[in-house]
Amino acid sequence: MLVAILxxxxxxxxxxxxxxxxxxxxxxxxxxxxxxGLPAALVGADAVHLIAPNLxxxxxxxxxxxxxxxxxxxxxxxxxxxxxxxxxxxxxxHLGKAESEDLVRRSxxxxxxxxxCAYLQxxxxxxxxxxxxxxxxxxxxxxxxxxxxxxxxxxLAAAAVLTGDGHLGATxxxxxxxxxxxxxxxAAAGATARRAPAGDDVHPWLQAMxxxxxxxxxxxxxxxxxxxxxxxxxSVEQVLARELGA
Length: 246
Description:
This protein is α/β, with parallel strands linked by helices. The protein has a single domain, classed as 3-Layer(aba) Sandwich (Rossmann fold). The chain has helices at 11-22, 59-72, 92-105, 124-133, 151-163, 182-188, 204-216, 223-229, 236-244; strands at residues 2-6, 26-30, 47-50, 77-81, 110-116, 135-138, 170-174, 192-195. A six-stranded parallel beta sheet has the order 2-1-3-4-5-7, sandwiched between helices. The protein is globular and about 55 Å long. The relative contact order is 0.15. The mean pLDDT is 96.
């Protein structure tokens, strides 16, 4: 089996590639430059794992082009990397993923959709800085709740749905084992958390996301991920021990 990974050079794509390699599956990581060469870059692949570039200005058009190329290349299997709570009109980039999910479902391909919550790994730079300052700073509320998830768990789930049976037509929301706040994560690392200004040059879509986080967080359950992994999702403490030696 050969899986082409669109977005294979990014953080998520590299993790998915490593998980597939662990499962004995060959991969073809494809970066942004390969997009202009589709469908030739997909020829010979058996499946596509589709990760759009972060904050793509028109993700539905990007996804539609990849789906068309996969069809032209004779690939019948696609897994689309979406996001938790895609239909959130207050967050434009989430809404782009909701529209893209609809395209995937109507593509005529055998599809699975993954909807991961925010990765714990996204907080690692702030947690490393906190080793000196003692404070984790983020540009949104530190006390709202998230189903923060381990990127490595998400990657293993992606490998499971691409290589296992029973996942066609499935949509899986992927969260960690418990709802936690940034303050909880900081405390587990021996630090405190506080909100800091986002800055004047923040992308408006990111500011919209921060505003949404202030009001609602991003709660996501852990049962689907646990079922795919065959074990409980990795806890905050376990991720910190692995990534930071905490």
